[in-house]
Fold these 2 entries.
Entry 1:
Amino acid sequence: MIVRVPVVEKILSINDQLAEENRARIQSAGLFSINLMASPGAGKTSLIEKTLPRLKDKCRVAVIDGDIATSIDSDRAAAAGAQVSIQINTGGDCHLDANMLRGALDQTDLTQFDLLIVENVGNLVCPASFDLGVHKSILIASIPEGDDKPYKYPAMYRGVDVLVVNKIDLLPYVPFRMDYFEHGVQVLNPGVLTFPLSCRTEEGLDAWVDWLFQNAIHPTRNLELET
Ligand code: MG
Ligand code: ZN
């Protein structure tokens, strides 16, 4: 008898095992960790740039940047004040997986940090399928992308713990129906914690940074809530 295991399922189950190992490592180091996902240009790196100076002197932050090529984003994170900024070049892969994150975690002593920010590869499709083993997955939507994205990319919206809606300063200039967008989000992910903000004008940033900070200083409490 021949049993065929679809390749995708096999890859995902190996990924889940490695994600569990990452999770155990992050938990024992006692830091809070997030996975930032978004389409290219939605503002992942900009959000990191605006967030880090506000956390300076309050908590120690490591940033791991996934990109297909170049170290532009990790250079920006370092310039913004990340104590450690690690680059993962995926060599063409359009998402991070748990094995890549494991390799990056090997590069640093996690116990030295309060917060780990992982910036995923810009992509609205597959990053949602690959558990990395961090505490919270966060999706950044942005106004110029359009109000139909929850309907077109349901897997991304369904799986995330937090939604950031960036570039709200552009609402007067682009056709974006907030009620249509919000309806799509609520169907997929009812009650998801949402932070509308603008990295450019800095409106709404304080609420986001405060949420991050509260989790970073109480990572143990947060883990208890998770289980
Ligand atoms: Mg980026
Ligand atoms: Zn991919």
Entry 2:
Amino acid sequence: MKIYLNGKFVEKEQARVSVFDHGLLYGDGAFEGIRSYNGLVFRLKEHIDRLYETLHTLMIAMPIDRKKMMGLVVETLKKNKLKDAYIRLIVTRGEGDLGLDPKKCYGKPGIIIIADKIKLYPEEFYQKGMEIITVPTIRNCAEAINPRLKSLNYLNNILAKIEASNSGYLEAIMLDPQGYVAECTGDNIFMVKNNILSTPSQGRLEGITRDAVLQLAKQRKIEVSERLITRHEVYVADECFLTGTAAEIIPVVKVDGRVIGNGKPGGLTQAIMKSFRYLTKKDGVKYQVS
Ligand code: PMP
């Protein structure tokens, strides 16, 4: 496996970072998870834009522009001869001293690109739907660490994931500080009631898959509502599903022990899953693997 690390491609065993890198010391940096499907990188520009926006707020000055970064992602896929892959793009603050002041870092961000495979959930969940719960850990809020920042500091989500996992679940709903549904630990959430597709308007990551689903829904003339959503509304919804780059679109059939709709993946969910699959086959930055 060839990994892009600070300007060169190295073998996995040689891909090592400094123990003084603030990405490691403080989770100071940003990342993206990107997918390629049959030689097409899905929504690459959108991922790179989101990354650069997070870096802008973190005040990490990138030595390369967005176009060059897109090129490096494609090059990593080609070097590894991968047509279908999950790409992890990481930018760290870089090396510094043991204090947390970014100004004392040497101003050279660490850039890492790994292309591999990912499988989050068993295939059965895509057919039959999954069961999730709500966990006590509250999602970071805009007043603290804005959940729109896809930073390397994922402890908020990890604490929630531990709670889910301790209870025997693979994914969980996180609420915002006001008690509204925010998102899941690594996925956005949607619900359908009376043919209206709703998803939380705030307190969550601006998911690339979420955006794709909203676009698909609008094309299909499905009424869409981005708003505040309570858990009660999810419990009494006709359908529920999650979206994410790794998870894609996964139906949810039970939340906190409450059966959603008829307990099976809903019709609209299945239609969106199908449209999304089609989209990944035609929408993306093309590359050739020799
Ligand atoms: N929310 C969180 C907290 C995430 O980490 C992710 C990405 N795994 C998502 C939502 C989904 O975003 P995307 O569709 O861009 O992968």
